[in-house]
Amino acid sequence: MFAYEFMRNAFWAATFIAITCGVVGVYVVARNFSFLAHTLSEIGFAGAAFAILMGLKPLTGMLIFALLGSIGVGELSMQTEQKESSISAISAFFVGLGILFLSLSSSASSYATNILFGSIIGVSRSSVYQLVGLSVVVLLIIFAIQRPLNYDSFDHIGAAAHHINTGFVGVVFLVALAMAVSIGSQVVGSMLVFVLLTMPSSTARYLGKSIPSMLAWSVGLALLGVWAGLCLGYITNWPVTFFISVIEVTAYLLVYFTQARKKRA
């Protein structure tokens, strides 16, 4: 399997993306941003479609749209009482916009599949460098604000008591989230990127007793999902995204029902 360059590229890219999504996902779940992450993936879908229409790389458009969308949607969700309704409206608008851009493009069908469901097997060496670089940037952002981010995400009242600028921390995290959504979409696609951002971290909340342990469990489960998914995809020639989704959801359900049984015992 590793004799093929495309598989080596896929494993390198998927490894860094899984680490990034595993780390960011812990804070996504803690801050109840799962729905927001899903919305950003759909905004990114519109950006990727626009980039294709303009003759640019899909990742470039996805990054630009997701970064701009993260600030706008984040501010809107904090300022309006009907947060979910507002985000749903924005999500629907950008999905429609993405479909319009793809319909205007001459290569709609093939690119639509790659954007929606990922194409990690076909990643080139230059794309690997780009994805690894972006992953490192996201991780550096998270570690740079980790102390105030921990307070704000897990103890918002304590953060206010310690005079932490929660607004600034929130904006910086939204930028990191937008980047994580964009690079995570390269593995599982824009429609399923929330699987990598929410499932490992949701499972980790049952297994970890501290923030470092939750981070470790989340990263480990994300790596398990992408590595096993790539291997099974290579063996069966089935979509890698399918295996990643099944593995992460199965792990979550197993841990959830195990913990529920322990509570009843």
From TrEMBL:
Entry-linked Gene3D superfamilies: ABC transporter involved in vitamin B12 uptake, BtuC (1.10.3470.10)
Membrane disposition: Multi-pass membrane protein
SUPFAM superfamilies: ABC transporter involved in vitamin B12 uptake, BtuC
An example Gene Ontology biological process: transmembrane transport
Main location: membrane
One Gene Ontology CC term in the entry: ATP-binding cassette (ABC) transporter complex
InterPro entries, sorted: ABC_BtuC-like, ABC_TroCD
Keywords (A to Z) from UniProt: Membrane, Transmembrane, Transmembrane helix, Transport
Cellular compartments annotated: Cell membrane; Membrane
Segments traversing the membrane: 12-30, 50-74, 86-108, 128-145, 214-235, 241-258
Pfam families in the record: ABC-3 (PF00950)
Keyword Transport: yes
Domain of life: Bacteria
PANTHER family linked to this entry: ABC-TRANSPORTER METAL-BINDING PROTEIN, IRON TRANSPORT SYSTEM MEMBRANE PROTEIN HI_0360-RELATED
Family membership: Belongs to the ABC-3 integral membrane protein family.
Protein name, per record: ABC transporter
The species this protein was found in: Lactobacillus delbrueckii
